[in-house]
Amino acid sequence: MKDVAQIRADFPILSRTVNGQPLVYLDNAATSQTPQQVIDVIVDYYSRYNANIHRGVHALSQEATDAYEQARQKIQQHFNIAASREVIFTSGTTHSINIVANGFTTLLQKGDELLVSAMEHHSNIVPWQMLCERTGATLKVIPMNREGELRMDVYHELLSENTKLVFCNHISNALGTINPIEKIIEVAHAVEAAVVIDGAQAAPHVKADLQALDVDFYTVSAHKLCGPTGVGMLYGKSEWLAKLPPYQGGGEMIAEVTFEKTTYADLPHKFEAGTPNICGGIAFGAALDYLNGIGLTEIAAYEASLLAYATEELLKIAGLKIYGTAAHKTAVISFNIEGIHPYDIGTILDKLGIAVRTGHHCAQPIMDFYQIPGTVRASFSFYNTKEEIDALVAAVERARKMLS
Amino acid sequence: MDIKEIQEDIIAEFSMFDDWMQRYEYMIELGKSLPLIEETYKTDDNIIKGCQSKVWVHAELETDKLVFTADSDAIITKGIIAILIRAFSNQKPKDIIEADTLFIDKIGLKEHLSPTRANGLVSMIKQLKLYAVAYQTQLK
Description:
The complex is a heterodimer.
Chain A: H1 4-9, E1 17-18, E2 21-22, E3 24-25, H2 36-49, H3 59-78, E4 87-90, H4 93-103, E5 113-117, H5 126-135, E6 138-142, H6 152-158, E7 163-169, H7 181-190, E8 194-198, H8 210-213, E9 217-221, E10 232-236, H9 238-243, E11 254-257, E12 262-264, H10 278-294, H11 296-314, E13 320-323, E14 332-337, H12 342-351, E15 354-355, E16 357-359, H13 364-370, E17 375-379, H14 386-403
Parallel strand pairs in A: 3-15, 5-6, 5-7, 7-8, 8-9
Antiparallel strand pairs in A: 1-2, 4-10, 9-10, 11-12, 13-14, 14-17, 16-17
Helix pairs in contact in A: 2-10, 3-10, 4-5, 11-14, 12-14
Chain B: H1 3-15, H2 20-33, E1 47-49, E2 54-62, E3 65-72, H3 75-88, H4 93-98, H5 102-106, H6 121-139
Antiparallel strand pairs in B: 1-2, 2-3
């Protein structure tokens, strides 16, 4: 990978201080930081060609439309998606999942079963529970083992001809587990169930080939991959997207409107009612360019070295326990120290300029599984360094001494 | 002492600390040392669920004064509870209703009372005031 010092120079925020200490940003699983190259694209948009897209005949509108549609193509290429109409711009993963969950309301009936993994973010649980309430379908849980790996044997047993949908994250936000989605998709298809993969945590670390995966739906949030907040993607196979009714009504998503009847626009616009986050979409494309400039393979290798080093160093701290020790995981470390509340550790780390997340990470079922109130989660990115890990370890040790 | 005098005392105590480390060490000590609530009162009825830490609050009227006991599963939250209870407990409901929490800002712990912090403390203060309002009505 390119020299990390050079990479860090791309991120203005990384040189700021917090509570008088140099910032050590280890909350990347919550949101990633933004490189100057992406910030420049945002500034350029508002400085030079801010306009509403698709409907205008004037030059600015055309330029904005071209840039927005180019971004859609970049996303299509990056994820190896068959057609750009299968790329729906959304406000992020939560929005993407809700489009699918809402769409299935008319396709499900009582007796149908939905399978959810035990390690989902609330955003990949609650919309499906709401769908079950609307349709009378049942939600069943694919359990996990103590290491934080899905019990594939139980998954096989749960699958039946009643299974209509399976949803699972590609990578767990709370544990870092990389789920065997290839296998999950393959066996779900054997019973003709559709599979929705939440790719929010995977996109900054793994280059997913959606055609090779043969996945039915895949979701991404731009702010996890060096892009801005409030924009993301829903990928859906066009045959599925054609079956689903629109999520929101409004402008942009229509073909013809009369008071008697409205016909809907073709894909992708059917699911893109209203003026979208135009600048965000363009910046999403720029963020992918930035990541590809460094290389996701190189990023994954570097982050794996950070994970190995951080795991080894943190485990030297007395009473420290790591939750999520899957054989295949990304650079996320969820931990607790015996007898100390994660919130207390997080508070002391913040005072020392170290940004981590504490709490249940919007995955309460995982915390219930381990019978803990939450964890401290340090999540690493390609711009983090071994020196930052040393600072983390020293700070956790200091917090332990203060709190025990 | 009335609430204002206690708050001034607390501000004076905290002004002796040179840096955040000393302030936090003091709070952690407070959190560890005080038996803040009887186990029988740590019920679901008395719980305030913050996203980050849990807080339990119990109130009892002793003649014309309201006595609070409370607890938290996080020690720093518990330390702040100890400070809040010192200021608000054993006071008349009317005085509790009228009191503010600006002294928390002045001792450099403002961030812990941010509504977005989700540690249960903001809800706890609201709860203390609600108890005061309820018992004030009862006293009348």
